[in-house]
Amino acid sequence: MSGEELLIADSADRDREGLRKLFDEQGYVCTASRDPLEAQELVRRKFFPAAVIDLDFGATGGGIEFARFLQQTSKPTRIVILAGRRSFEAAVDALRIGVVDVVSKRPDQIAALLQTVKR
Hints:
The protein is an alpha/beta fold. It has helices at residues 13-25, 36-45, 62-73, 88-96, 110-118, and strands at residues 5-9, 29-33, 50-54, 78-83, 101-104. Helix content is 45%, strand content 21%.
């Protein structure tokens, strides 16, 4: 997927930059945001074919709200939610609004995350 645009939305600096580096190395053109308002503005100005959103983006559970905004603003964008904690309810909510997948935010899930985004 060389050159594909990817939005990374994660409030945690270390995680966000790690994701950016991971996807940059895979050939994606990454735009990363640590702030939900900034991310909303980015989505209003530019189309992203895919987005990786931390479940706790901005606030606990804020990733679902941002994913909902993204779905309403840019329907074709494919969304993957990263869940740092186990939350069945949040995963169900995410899938109901149309995200592609919910991937656990753990080092042993990096291959699954890459495969999901590639898909």
